[in-house]
Write a structure and sequence with these properties.
- The structure holds 2 protein chains of 2 kinds.
- By secondary structure, chain A is mainly alpha-helical.
- Chain A folds into 2 domains: 253 residues, MetI-like (MetI-like fold, Orthogonal Bundle), CATH 1.10.3720.10; 80 residues, no CATH class.
- Chain A is built from 15 helices and no strands.
- The relative contact order of chain A is 0.13.
- By secondary structure, chain B is mostly helical.
- Chain B folds into 2 domains: 76 residues, no CATH class; 228 residues, MetI-like fold (Orthogonal Bundle), CATH 1.10.3720.
- Chain B is built from 13 helices and no strands.
- In chain B, α9 crosses α10.
- The chains are: A mainly alpha, B mainly alpha.
- Chains A and B meet through α3, α4, α9, α10 and α11 of A and α1, α6, α7, α8 and α9 of B.
């Protein structure tokens, strides 16, 4: 776990997405105004940021910051619910399809594939269109409906990993001592799929944020229900980006919030991917660091660099002295060491990790 | 060609599911919403239109649900998607036919550009692993994570409103030009298409780049690439050996991405008031035009399935293993 926290991608991702979750919890409590309150009924032009309104006001003089905070809670709640529900569905479909095999697999895979190619957003528009804008929306219900269209990708990945896990010795032995099917799936296979489940969860949360924002931007979800998408709807409706006076304070904050929350989750996702498959990482030392340490240009492909002993020692010293470089090398050996523990036989990581380009490994 | 046959089977099933879902959604909602709409238009529409609506949504008919379902299929197979409520008496089909070329032109071109560009950047990023390009990837992730339409709003604000390089909206200058095959019209259309297309490329290029980079890095560890390098082949040739093989999963990933890109592109159209399907969609939502909404859903589904099939043919053409399987 500690090794996981050494990846800058994971740390930045955790901070970014964590900050938004905290904001969603405390945001509406510290918001200076009610998102619906108009501070003046006479003015019809949005006001730029000022001391009274840190992020300016909308056309009807509502406080943008308060809307952002109120909308954040709804947006993040919907996306987390969507992620959780979709992940449960993905595990149910993916693991059982992969483990059961045969006709059961064919059927479950077909359902997943149908959901995969069915364009999700238009389907959701039809569903929410018929639910109607008049209905008072419930964030949990919205999240669950979005999840119906977002689980298939995770299910497909989990199925592939389960397939590779099935033939392993520990699963075989569990079967031989007479464990039940659901028990093998839940207690033998699933714990080994944790990284894949985590990636699939993060992926669907990103999907949930984007989809919910798109749906409220389109105006198919009640427009009095504040979310980042509704804010963008009103801004677009007032042509805030087309005004000569460019009312950026109105449409930039909600869009930026969606993008940054998504980026945080995506970075976390990449971090986990790289932890599981270290080859994806930027190799060992970056070009500039290597040059500074006096290393010759490293070969691009899997040729072991033959280095004079002195240079290697210098590189190791340089690596040890710089936290980032030390992190790269350290995490690689950590993964090679723990690969057997986290994922037996390193199923997710593919072939065993051999990256002889790394100067640190030359040392070893 | 077993692979193609299997895929076609899947697409047929998906189309059936889409049509069935489309039929049942209005009937499963609490308090058939079509009733409200029929009540709303009762005053303004002819009895004929209301009868057609009642038939489409199963209101006040003596036919059972199965009979209605068969009737619905009959209508779909005859290409009849119903009548628009908002622009009565125009049929849904005619409205979509007018908007479709705009969308296909814009989204098709942008997707092809984005795929080629993303793949090339991905190849370079993998080859030069550890260079500054690795730091560009997180920035690209932002554009991937931010909604397409937000990127579009930013593009309008910066390049159209602030700098005035491109028109702010519409597909062509409707005030001064009539559609026709003359240079003035065509250049005007191209001028209006640049910024929306650029937005779609910017928002979708990161996905292709990251996919290609990750696949390319895996492929570069293969023995045949090492041998090519060891033989002393020129760098360009070594890269092309690795890239050609890394490309396959990216082509396969196309089918996953296309639905997403089309949805995003529709939202981009809305920001630009581009006269395509997306703009039709928002007018349909704004006026509770259910037949149009459902027609658009079906047409988008069919278009996505068709694009998928094309990608499958390309895949089968590129990868001989899929052809030999049968």
């Amino acid at each position: 776990m500690r090794k996981l926290l050494r990846s800058p991608k994971i740390v930045i991702g955790l901070c970014l997405s964590g900050a938004f979750v905290v904001l969603a919890i405390v945001g509406p409590l510290v918001a200076p105004y009610s998102p619906n309150a108009s501070s003046s009924t006479t003015s019809g032009t949005p006001m730029p940021p000022s001391a009274a309104h840190w992020l300016g006001t909308t056309q009807v003089q509502q406080d943008v910051l308060s809307q952002l905070l109120a909308g954040g809670r709804s947006t993040i709640l919907v996306s987390l619910v969507a992620g959780a529900v979709a992940t449960v569905l993905a595990v149910l479909f993916g693991v059982s399809a992969g483990y059961l095999g045969g006709y059961g697999d064919d059927l479950l895979s077909m359902v997943a594939n149908v959901f995969l190619v069915l364009p999700a957003l238009p389907l959701l528009i039809v569903i929410f269109g018929f639910i109607g804008r008049g209905a008072n929306p419930n964030d949990v219900l919205i999240g669950a409906i979005i999840a119906i269209t977002g689980w298939a990708f995770g299910a497909r990945q989990l199925r592939a990993q389960t397939l590779s896990m099935r033939a392993r010795d520990f699963v075989d032995s569990a079967r031989i001592i007479g464990e039940r099917k659901w028990r093998i799936m839940a207690f033998e296979i699933l714990p080994n799929l944790v990284p894949v489940v985590a990636t699939s969860f993060l992926f669907t949360v990103i999907y949930g944020v984007g989809t919910y924002t798109a749906l409220s931007f389109l105006g198919v979800i009640s427009l009095s229900h504040w979310s980042w998408g509704t804010m963008l709807y009103w801004a677009q409706n007032a042509q805030a980006a087309q005004q000569v006076r460019l009312e950026w304070w109105w449409f930039v904050p909600p869009g930026l919030a969606v993008g940054l929350f998504g980026t945080g989750l995506a970075l976390l996702n990449f971090g986990i991917d790289e932890y599981v498959n270290p080859r994806l990482r930027a190799a060992g030392l970056t070009g500039r660091r290597a040059r500074r340490a006096g290393l010759p240009r490293r070969p691009r492909l899997g040729l072991t660099a033959v280095l004079p002993a002195g240079v290697t020692a210098a590189a190791a010293a340089a690596a040890a002295g710089r936290p980032a470089a030390a992190m790269d090398g350290g995490a690689v050996s950590a993964v090679s060491a723990t690969a057997g523990g986290v994922i037996p036989g390193s199923a997710v990581a593919g072939p065993p990790v051999t990256d002889p380009v790394l100067p640190d490994e030359v040392q070893q | 060609m077993r692979m193609i046959a299997r895929r076609i089977g899947l697409y047929v099933i998906t189309a059936i599911v889409a049509i069935t879902v489309n039929f049942f959604i209005p009937r499963l909602m609490p308090g058939n919403p079509a009733l409200a709409v029929i009540g709303r238009v009762q005053a303004s529409e002819s009895t004929q239109a209301i009868n057609a609506l009642e038939l489409q949504y199963g209101v006040q008919t003596k036919t059972g649900i199965w009979g209605q379902y068969v009737h619905y299929w009959n209508q779909i197979l005859h290409g009849n998607l119903g009548t628009s409520l908002n622009s009565y008496p125009a049929s849904v089909g005619s409205l979509i036919r007018a908007a479709l070329p705009w969308t296909i032109g814009l989204v098709g071109t942008a997707t092809v550009i984005s795929f080629i560009l993303g793949t090339l950047i991905g190849i370079i990023a993998a080859w030069r692993r550890g260079s500054w390009l690795d730091n560009v990837l997180p920035a690209m992730t932002f554009f991937q994570a931010a909604p397409y339409f937000f990127v579009a709003i930013l593009a309008v604000a910066l390049f159209a409103t602030k700098l005035g390089w491109f028109p702010q909206s519409l597909g062509y200058d409707t005030a001064t030009l009539n559609p026709g095959l003359n240079w003035a019209f065509i250049s005007n259309v191209l001028d209006h298409a640049v910024l929306p297309a650029l937005t779609i490329v910017l928002a979708s290029v990161a996905g292709w780049t990251i996919g290609m980079r990750n696949m390319m890095i895996t492929t570069m560890d293969e023995d045949y690439v090492l041998i090519a390098q060891a033989k002393g082949l020129p760098k360009r040739q070594v890269i092309s050996y690795a890239a050609r093989n890394a490309l396959l999963p990216n082509v396969a990933g196309f089918s996953l991405a296309i639905g997403f890109i089309v949805s995003g592109a529709l939202l981009t159209e809305i920001v630009f008031s581009y006269p395509g399907i997306g703009y039709l969609l928002i007018t349909a939502i704004g006026s509770d035009d259910y037949p149009l909404l459902q027609g658009i859903f079906l047409i988008i589904t069919f278009a996505v399935l068709l694009a998928n099939l094309l990608a499958d043919f390309v895949y089968a053409f590129l990868d001989p293993r899929t052809r030999q399987e049968a």
